[in-house]
Specification:
The chain has about 300 residues and is of the alpha/beta class. The protein is built from eleven helices and twelve strands. The strands form four sheets. The protein has a five-stranded parallel sheet with strand order 4-5-8-11-12. Strands 1-2-3 form a three-stranded parallel sheet. Strands 6-7 form a two-stranded parallel ribbon.
Length: about 300
């Protein structure tokens, strides 16, 4: 069975600053090598990290490879008039009509409950596009929407917009799958050398008890999960991971967050899912849903389900 990637990045013409993203050719070479049939391309539009790209770049890459990519659009919450009444729904509807399947990755360094951010969520709900964000616990020194331990901003958003489909992504969310005894462990920081330090993938991140992320998934049917950043935590406790996958099998998506042309570490999650399935630890139907079928149904992709 070939996988579907719900979260990836590519630049039409990659640039070597902060992170050198893959070109379409480079990401397709990886997809062919790892058995991934199709992937979502999420544009980077916020200047807080990396360098912004246009939604049109994503659409062009999809037009050139319509059988391998599908597009998200993105818009900065401060766009147009930098106010909480900005008509961002007009922008989102425009890109939805062009075939975009979601909004994101939303990652300006703004408070989750900032009225302009909430306006973007309101507009996405109105238009009927799902959203995915990245997060942080550090204002003015990072990228991603700022939320406190326990994710109150996310919870208020889910309460406020019950018809908004929210695809959770990023280490700040997935660190909450267990008790956060040391909140600073949740996300690496960029040092003066331009490299990330303190990556959860390099730590012995122990799952002790169920955390807020699981409580939110149980309570809010409009909350979904994309697993690229969950991998670094869940791989350390296979029994917990399998129970989690089984319980939320209808609302989880395989993803790589492929964003670096110099490494293929983001594809370790694919090898792990292969191992879980081949060993019999992960039930066949659950594996098919998470790694392929859920994305086909959710995004309305022109693919056959496994």
């Amino acid at each position: 069975m070939k996988y579907v990637d719900a979260h990836a990045h590519a630049y039409r013409k990659p640039i070597p600053f902060v992170t050198q993203f893959c070109s379409p050719k480079e990401i397709l070479e990886r997809y062919d090598r790892y058995g991934i049939e199709m992937g979502a391309l999420l544009p980077v539009v916020n200047s807080d990290i990396y360098l912004p790209q246009a939604n049109e770049d994503i659409l062009e890459m999809v037009e050139n490879h319509p059988d391998r990519f599908f597009p998200f659009c993105n818009v900065d919450p401060r766009a147009l008039i930098n106010r909480s009444d900005a008509p961002l729904d007009t922008v989102l509807q425009y890109y939805k009509d062009l075939g975009c399947k979601g909004v994101g990755e939303i990652m300006p360094n703004m408070e989750f409950m900032d009225d302009r951010v909430q306006n973007l969520f309101r507009c996405a709900e109105k238009v009927g596009l799902p959203v995915t964000t990245d997060g942080t616990d550090r204002p003015n020194a990072d990228f991603g929407l700022c939320d406190a331990p326990g994710l109150p901003g996310l919870e208020h958003t889910l309460q406020r917009f019950p018809n908004l489909k929210f695809i959770a992504h990023g280490p700040v969310f997935w660190a909450e799958i267990t008790e956060r005894r040391r909140p600073a462990l949740c996300k690496p920081v960029f040092g003066s050398d331009g490299l990330q330090h303190g990556s959860p993938g390099k730590r012995n991140f122990k799952i002790t008890t169920e955390g807020v992320a699981i409580e939110l998934l149980r309570e809010f049917p409009n909350l979904y999960g994309e697993l690229s950043d969950a991998y670094w935590i869940l791989r350390g406790n296979e029994e917990f991971a399998v129970k989690f996958f089984v319980e939320f099998q209808d609302r989880l998506f395989f993803g790589t967050d492929c964003c670096n042309s110099t490494t293929e570490a983001n594809f370790n999650i694919k090898l792990w899912f292969d191992e879980l399935h081949n060993s019999g630890a992960l039930p066949d139907e659950v594996w098919k849903k998470i790694c392929r079928n859920n994305a086909i149904d959710f995004f309305g992709l022109p693919l056959k389900k496994a």
